[in-house]
What does this fold into?
Amino acid sequence: MFIKLNFRSSIGKDKSHLRIIKISRIQEVRPDDFKNGSEIQLSGEKRFHRVVESVEEIFGIIKK
It folds into this structure.
């Protein structure tokens, strides 16, 4: 399964760019209230990528 995510540019305030990512490649998601906003880490990579979408928009609302 794939998901469309809008990645924010790390340089200046350039527009975000759309990428289609295989869901199984997402290793970790940082929430909106994290210091840089929403970020995801892809498997095999060490850095996080800033995204426009919130955790809820990516995975839906998670309930206990």
The mean pLDDT is 86. The helical segments are 55-59.
